[in-house]
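Posting this for the archive.
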Amino acid sequence: MKKILPPLLALLCLLLPVRAADFYDLPQNHWAGAEIRQALDAGVVNGYGDGSFQPTRKVTAAQFCAMLTRSFLAEEHAAAKEGKYQAMEACLPVLEGTSIEATWRDLGKRWDRYVDQPLSRYDMAQIVYNLIVRQDALHETITLSTTEIADWNEIPDGYHSAVFTCWGLGILKGQSDGRFAGEDTLNRAQAAVIWSRLDTLFNGPREEPKDPDEGVEEKEMPAFGLQGDETVREMMKRVNAKTPLCEEGRLPNGKSRTEENIQELLELVKQGCPDGTVWSDTIRYDYTVPRLGPTRGCRSFGLAVSDFVFGEDAPITQHRDLRSLSVGDVIHIQFEEVERVLILTGVDREEGAYTACELEKNGKVDWDQWGPLSGLVDATGFTMVYSRWRNA
C-alpha cells in the first residue's frame, strides 16, 4: 500500500484562496459545510476571486482528478509531466474502466477538452473504486443488497463493482428516490463530501474541532416584545440598551454564530411575540435602523428581530441572492398591495425547503410557515434579503 501524502496544492491555480467564512454563497449551515471547510483547510479546493465558492457548480473530470491526485496520489502527481493535464496523467492508474480512459485511448492517448466536461456519477464511482483498490483500503466485508439500489438493473455491467463498493462503504449516497442515477453529474459540494469520506477511509477520522462554546458563559438577554403601552421604538431602545455587546463571530448572548444558537434566540422572540401577535402598519410599530433609516410594518418587525438576534451593531447586508439564504435572514417581499416578511427559522438545502416566521401587512405573527426554496425565487425584483451572515 502506498503512503498517502497530504494535499500539496490548491485545486486550480487560477482560483484565488479565500477563507471559508468569506464565501457569500456558503452559509455556515450549508448541508456540506463541514466537508467543504475540511477540503478548504486541506488545500484541495479554493474559492473564486469574486468571493464565491459556487457549491452547485458542476465538477469536471480534470478538477476531480486534481483533488484526488494531489491528496492521495501525490507521488504520481510529482512524477507526471508538468502542464495543463498533469493531474490527468497522474490519475491514469485509477481511470481504468471509465469513459474518460476510453476516450483518451480513442484520441491516441492524448487529452482534449472533453476532460473539462462535467463528470458523471458513473465515472466518478469507477475512479473512486479504483483508488480504493489501489490503496488496498478494502478491509471490511460490505453488507449491501442490490435491491437497496432502485436502478441497479439499469447500471451498465462495467460499473457494478464500483457502484456496489462505493455505496456499501458510504462513500457515495443515492438520490432521494433510491436511485444511483449514474448519468447525473457531480457538483463542487458533492465532490468535497466524497473527498472528505475518502480522506477518512484512508487516514482515519480527523480530530473533532473544539466546541466554540465550551467554557463560554452565556449572557442574559432582555425580553423581546411590547410591554404595556410601549412603542416599538421604545421597546427596541430598552432591548438594545440591555443587550450585551457582541464579540466577533458571536451572538449577543455570548454563544457562537451557529444555526442552533440563532434558533435558540428566535425562540426567545417567539416567547415575546407568539403566534397571533398583532404588528400593524401604524406609527406605534415603526422602527429606525441606524444603517437603513425608518422602517414600518412588516419590515420593522423583521429588522427588529434581526437586531435582537444578532445585535444592532452587527453589520447588515442587503441582497437579492435567494440561493444563499441562512437561518436568521429576513426576507422582505413587496409587490403592489402585497407585503410580507419571512424570518427564516430553518433552511434544508438537501430537501430544498425552508421554515419561517411570517408577518403579512397589518396581519398577525405566524411561526409555522414553510415552503420550497424554489418558491422564493423573485421574478418581479421586489424581494430583498437582509442578512447578518455575509459580514460574520
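The chain has eleven helices and eight strands. Residues 9 and 249 are 29 Å apart (CA to CA).
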